[in-house]
Amino acid sequence: MKEVRVEDAIGMVLCHDMTEIIPGKKKGCAFRKGHIVTEADIEKLLDIGKRHIFVWDLQEGYVHENDAAIRMAKAAAGPNIRLSEPKEGKVNLTAVCDGLLSVNTELLYDLNMDEQVCFSSIHGGKMAKEGKLLAGTRVIPLVVKEETVADFEEKCRRQGPVLQVKPLAHAKIGIVVTGSEVLEGRIQDQFSPVLEEKAKELGAEIMGKVLAGDDKERIRLEIGNWMEKGADMVWVSGGMSVDPDDRTPAAIRACGGEVITYGTPVLPGAMFMLSYVQGIPVIGLPGCVMYSKRTVFDLAVPRILAGERLTRMDFVKMAHGGLCQNCPVCVYPDCGFGA
Predict the structure, then answer these.
(1) 98-131 exposure pattern, b = at least 16 Cβ within 10 A, e = fewer
(2) Which of these ranges, 144-148, 150-154, 291-295, 324-328, has the smallest mean pLDDT?
(3) At residue 214, does pLDDT exceed 80?
(4) Do 197 and 136 contact (CB within 8 A), yes or no?
(5) Residues with Cβ < 8 Å from 207, sequence gap 6 or more?
(6) Mean pLDDT throughout 87-95?
(7) I need a surface site. Which of 123, 132, 156, 179 has the fewest CB within 10 A?
């Protein structure tokens, strides 16, 4: 920091805020700390009584906080991310479109190991609406060495991006409704209307539904029929518990695909099942999806529609934040349960 004549401060960085007072009208900040003085600023500085000011002399090899934030945000941002203009040394990153937010957490942690770097995001693996604030970045000091920013950029180049928004595919969904009580008309099918609303929310198309009762072979055949008709995903509703008459898990296994999981560390949604049959996701949905506003369905299915092929470990990681707290007002898609 040094004191200089205002006329000699062009290109230098202000060390503190400059207040402008107009009696009877306003008192406010005319120039903020970190502002780079331009030739156009000289007259106003003189008008507010500043003949000498304290500045950082931005020496060669150093980067101003605004420039550093811009460079870091550009390096970290993946597809469908919009950057704000820098304000007081910070750049915000927002969603360009609706989609699934994906965050490279290992890279995020690595970048923040540098004590001069601040890169903060919301939790990934959840839906984000267009315009949603996803992250913000800045450096801690007013100026940093070029190597700090260059190292950040290089890590992002090798391991990045830090975050991206993945649009959901417009998938065609076939529904298989289980339960002899529904097939025989003893009760009304209340599961399908819920799934239709969820499909609408995700931008997916319901091809139709079939009633399959509790017969394992019939459930298996109906799953196959939807696949033959071009379904991108099959949802099998109900029959997922360990009761003797619940045949859905056995029917899905009989389709011959790769079972990723039957059971998850998510509540509600412990009896959820995911299998890939000929590359097509077949999902067994427990009854909680029908009566709970948000379940494991809302954590897993958007990721599948965003093109991710989930593994058992993906479900294991849902244990952290996988307990829905039944908030009085569900603020999904921003809650992500307890994450």
Answers:
(1) bbbbbbbeebbebbeebeebbbebbebbbbbeee
(2) 324-328
(3) yes
(4) no
(5) 172, 173, 174, 226, 229, 230, 231
(6) 93
(7) 123
Predicted pLDDT of residue 57: 66
Q: Report residue 252 as tokens.
A: 């899905």
Residue 339's pLDDT band, with cuts at 50, 70 and 90, is very low
Sheet hosting strand 133-139, strand order edge to edge: 81-83, 91-95, 133-139, 117-121
DSSP assignment of 209-221 = EEEEET-HHHHHH
User: Token digits for 233?
Assistant: 């995903």
Torsion of CA 137, 139, 144, 145, to 10 degrees: -50
**254-259: long-range contacts, CB 8 A cutoff, minimum separation 24:** 254/216, 254/217, 254/220, 255/220, 255/223, 255/224, 255/282, 257/282
Residue 90's nearest CA partner among 115, 132, 120, 60 is 120
Look at residue 30 and give its three-state secondary structure.
strand
Note the pLDDT of residue 14.
84
Q: Quick one: pLDDT at residue 324?
A: 87
Question: What does the alpha-carbon distance between residue 252 and residue 55 come to, in Å, rounded to a whole number?
Answer: 69
Buried b (16+ CB within 10 A) or exposed e, 55-82: bbebeeebbbbbbbbbbbbebbbbebbb
- Residue 5 class from Cβ within 10 Å (0-12 exposed, 13-18 middle, 19+ buried)? exposed
Residue in 71, 126, 128 with CA at minimum distance from that of residue 95: 128
**Banded pLDDT at 334 (limits 50, 70, 90):** low
Beta partners for residue 213, in sequence order? 178
pTM recorded for the entire structure: 0.83
